[in-house]
Amino acid sequence: MIFVGATLCGRPIFLGEIMNSADIIAYVKEHGIFDRNAELSCQEIGDGNINYVFRLADKATGKSVIVKYADELLRSSGRKLCTDRSRIEAETLILHNQLSPGHVPEVYHYDHAARLIVMQDLADYENMRYALLARKTFPTFADDISTFMAQTLIRTTDNILDPMDKKALVKSMINPEMCLISEKLVFTEPYTNHYGTNTPFEENTEFFKKELYGNEALCLEAAKLQDSFKTNAQALLHGDLHTGSIFVKSGSTMVLDPEFAFYGPIGYDVGNVVANLIFAWVNAEVTMPNGNEKSTFQTWLECAIRDTVDLFYSKALRILKNEATDRMAQTPGFAEWYMQNVMSDSAGMAGLELNRRIIGDAKVADIAGIKDRDARKRAERICVLYANKLILGRNKRYQSGEEYLKTLREIRIL
Prior knowledge:
By secondary structure, the protein is an alpha+beta fold.
């Protein structure tokens, strides 16, 4: 076995070794995160495919932390995956906390050799996806998430960063294996099933053949967006910014799990947030009985979609206009041109996220969890038809949040 350079209570840790709860407890005590005499509980709470996540708590004081540990093997297939994603995640969290404090969990400790991050426990927060499925609303969400995106995305572009610092950051955040996962699952599979990973809902098989596989104009636009994803090192992205990676409570929003972080097109992050709000809206559309409760919840979601788009645009534009350090980025009209392109990309990327979560194997509970088969059939069709409008119309529409709502109203009649 290969020694990775880390030790645990004096013994070496080897590549491929899986640390269990006892190992994690010993590690945090050895590194001074908890007192050596503390009585700790340790619960494995991860539900993902590529990492182990533990919550540790001191039974006497109540102090708790999260330990995230990167396995070198995918749980589902046993395929190897580069563990450098753990470093990228830790460094991204630290940088995001500097750029947008209060919107990401604090990193207390990172061990590169052990592929292990110790961070703030968000035990008093809820996973946003499941909170929305419980019909909860969060009035500050749009303001919070738009601030996070404007601060972390625009401030990591060439317009703000020193050119040498930006290029060094691009080099540091190269994340090829995680990007390849996105390239396959987001940009290729929904339109070709080239790798045979799609898992279509049976009732919509023929619909998908027409609207996705057989839609040549759509496939061309997906190819163009993939080219941008591969080549446009615009800003440091979170890379997987969906509602399952966002934790919320009243008055606060936290973004975590940036293991897919890399330098790419800004619209990829923005589009992912919008698409996942749309999933929640569609779930309510097909599962909730008509009435005040449904109307109130969907109205809040519509406001969240509109305000996320519009607030991001205004905050990002303000940073570009007031703080650009690049001389040519200070040219009158440049900031508006730049943001027009970002918003077009955002619409296209939102469409890609909608399609890939419907037909691909990485589904979302908002849609795949719908028990009534007719309701799920309708939900999937709403999502795909909406997605295709976003992708095909991204260069003509969707510069404002209201444009997203107009399309939503057009699609809901299905």
